[in-house]
Amino acid sequence: MSHFVGFVFGSNVDELLEPYDENMVVDAYVRYTKDEAVDEVKRRHADNYEYALKVLDKYQDPKSDWEKEQVERANKIIEGGIGISYEDAWEEAKKWGYDMDDNENLLSTYNPESKWDWYSEGGRWGAWLILKEKDENGVPLTAIFATKSEVDWDRMFPNRVPFCFVTEDGEWHESASMGWWGMTSDDKEEDVWNKEFKEYLDSVGDDVEISVIDFHI
Asked: At what angle are helices 65-80 and 34-58 packed, to 10 degrees?
């Protein structure tokens, strides 16, 4: 599971984040056609085969029980071959547990827009916004939420640019697609992401409230 930090622009945080709730059940839709499901199974088989080759190359002389288990599993994958027939792939896809319509499409009610399964304001990031206001010792104050004009953005950039942000209109923007265990995909270059965030920040009013959110998925 993964935690990541985001900003929400607007005071109606719960409303803006609701569409991205992984726990929300949506109307049934076609997740895979039959051909798409078969292609997905074939892709997974090929990926597993390539991974098995890497395991065997890495643990040529397995010593621990865990390494031996990995090698045994890899050998079974290699023995099965990299390919799989259309019919066998379809039988495997049907075991995924999806409902099926009359056209053999696999149906899902999982929210395709999901980004989080729970979140908290601040969370492990706490008062992550650096404010212009300072304490009696001249140290900048920090906050979990503040208006745009209250934040010292010169201090925020570049080390406190969020992983993602949600606009006042409820649009989700992200620097990458977050998966389990902190693994990401489709990562944007840092300068590209910083520019995207800065351009939106410049477009909003000074009185817009910004909240720090600890997302979990």
From this structure: 130
> What is the identity of the amino acid at 145?
F
Q: Could you report the per-residue pLDDT of 93-124, keeping only the tens digit for each?
A: 999 999 999 999 999 999 999 999 999 999 99
Q: What are phi and psi of 35, to 5 degrees?
A: -65, -40
* Residues 153 and 197: beta-carbon distance below 8 Å: no
Q: Which of 18-22, 70-74, 112-116, 148-152 has the lowest mean pLDDT?
A: 70-74
User: Which tokens sit at 107?
Assistant: 């149906």
Q: Under DSSP, is residue 10 helix (H, G, I), strand (E, B) or coil?
A: coil
What gap in Å lies between CA 137 and CA 134, rounded to an integer?
Answer: 7
> Starting from the edge strand earliest in sequence, which strands make up the sheet with 25-32, in order?
25-32, 106-110, 99-100
Cα angle 173, 176, 178 (rounded to 5 degrees) comes to 105
List Cα–Cα distances, 14 to 8, 19, 26, 147, 197, in angstroms.
Answer: 10, 10, 18, 17, 21
